[in-house]
Structure formats: structure tokens, C-alpha cells
UniProtKB/TrEMBL annotation:
<feature type="binding site">
    <location>
        <position position="7"/>
    </location>
    <ligand>
        <name>substrate</name>
    </ligand>
</feature>
<keyword id="KW-0119">Carbohydrate metabolism</keyword>
<feature type="active site" description="Proton donor">
    <location>
        <position position="174"/>
    </location>
</feature>
<keyword id="KW-0413">Isomerase</keyword>
<dbReference type="InterPro" id="IPR011060">
    <property type="entry name" value="RibuloseP-bd_barrel"/>
</dbReference>
<dbReference type="GO" id="GO:0046872">
    <property type="term" value="F:metal ion binding"/>
</dbReference>
<dbReference type="InterPro" id="IPR026019">
    <property type="entry name" value="Ribul_P_3_epim"/>
</dbReference>
<feature type="binding site">
    <location>
        <position position="34"/>
    </location>
    <ligand>
        <name>a divalent metal cation</name>
    </ligand>
</feature>
<dbReference type="GO" id="GO:0004750">
    <property type="term" value="F:D-ribulose-phosphate 3-epimerase activity"/>
</dbReference>
<feature type="binding site">
    <location>
        <position position="65"/>
    </location>
    <ligand>
        <name>a divalent metal cation</name>
    </ligand>
</feature>
<keyword id="KW-0170">Cobalt</keyword>
<feature type="binding site">
    <location>
        <position position="32"/>
    </location>
    <ligand>
        <name>a divalent metal cation</name>
    </ligand>
</feature>
<keyword id="KW-0479">Metal-binding</keyword>
<dbReference type="InterPro" id="IPR000056">
    <property type="entry name" value="Ribul_P_3_epim-like"/>
</dbReference>
<feature type="binding site">
    <location>
        <position position="176"/>
    </location>
    <ligand>
        <name>substrate</name>
    </ligand>
</feature>
<feature type="binding site">
    <location>
        <begin position="174"/>
        <end position="176"/>
    </location>
    <ligand>
        <name>substrate</name>
    </ligand>
</feature>
<dbReference type="GO" id="GO:0019323">
    <property type="term" value="P:pentose catabolic process"/>
</dbReference>
Amino acid sequence: MLKVAPSILSADFLNLQHDIEEVAKDKADLLHIDIMDGNFVPNISFGWTMLEQIRKVTDLFLDVHLMIAKSNEYLDQFIHAGADLIDVHIENTQDIDQVIKKIHAAKIKVGLVINPETKVETVLPYLDQIDQVLVMTVHPGFGGQQFIPECLTKIAYLNQLRKNKQFNYQIEVDGGINETTAKQCYEKGTDIVVAGSYVFKNDIKNAIEILHKVSE
Ligand code: DX5
Ligand code: ZN
């Protein structure tokens, strides 16, 4: 079944615990946490202290998407705050081999993220070492944007490659997910869809159920 990762960027920050408990009750498969620094992306969300608080109130798997300029320098903080998986952007990360090793040494998972304008081939050298490829289907920074359909070919490519070479990474998609775009992504081989506004701006239970049903 297609997995659903609600992005708390669109949740009610003043009632975050409530919203997290709600998505857990409504069978969200994991939680997606967007860290933005106003530098790598033109928006600021929150830092690792928020992640620490979230970790205290949920057992959900925490998928932490770093959209920050110097991700290499902040890995320890996010590891210690309780991330289960850390996604770093290929566009701004130095020494990717080292980053992968460091995250794995902490016994958590690692994902590489590609922006819409980034060629999928950039992740090729790392595919045998990583747990996830996160395909951005909007320009990172804000919830509620329109899905960019040109990114679908990247998903198909990654899915084919994983079959041919027996790689183990999962394919996650982030940005502009709704019932229609989730189906398109699933058909190309996506394992997990991140959904922010679609989940939190609608009836939460119903939205998660609809996204799960896409794979039926
Ligand atoms: C965008 C973030 C997304 C965002 C998705 O930069 O990485 O995770 O929350 O929001 P929606 O689902 O509304 O496009
Ligand atoms: Zn994200």
C-alpha cells in the first residue's frame, strides 16, 4: 500500500501535539518534518528543538527533511533530537559519502533529495548506499504549491533502476500531493507520498484514507 507521510508544515503549530495524535490515530505511516532556514529556501520553519519536542509525544517514524544551507554541520543535532531518517539535498551537501556514513553510524536512515530542476542522474553514485530518494515535485520552501508533472519521469527512472540493479532505496515524493497526483506518483513506482495541505486543510482522516486507497 502507498504510505502517507503528513507534513506538519501545514499543521496547526499551536496545537501540534493534537494534530500529530490525530494523524497517528488516522493511520498515517510516518511523519514528515520540514526544516527550513531562510537561506537554502525562502522560508523559515523551526529547528531541532522542535523535533525534540515532537519526539517526546509520538512513536511515529520521523522523516526529517533538511532544507538548510549547511546540512553537514547540523547532522548531530537532528540525530540526537530523535530523527529516524534524515533527508539531505544533493544540491547543497558537501561530502555526501561522509554524510551517508555519519547518519548510518547513528543507526538511522538517510535519504537524498532532488529538486525539480536537478537531474536524477546526480544521485546515481549513491544509490547503493542510501535508504531513500526524495523526489521534490514543487520548488522547496512552501506548502500548498502546484505539483510539477515533469518530475514524474524521475520516479519511473528510479523505480526501473531499482528493479534492474536490485537496489533497496524507497522512493518518496514531496509537494503538491492530492488524490490525483498521488495516483500518478504511485503508478510510476512511488512508495511514500508526503502531503501537507491536502491532509491538514481537509478532513484529516478522510484525506489519509483517500491517499491510502490510491494503491488499491
Ligand atoms: C515543501 C515541503 C513540503 C511541504 C509539502 O518545501 O518540503 O514537505 O510541506 O506541502 P504540500 O503537500 O502542501 O505541497
Ligand atoms: Zn518536505
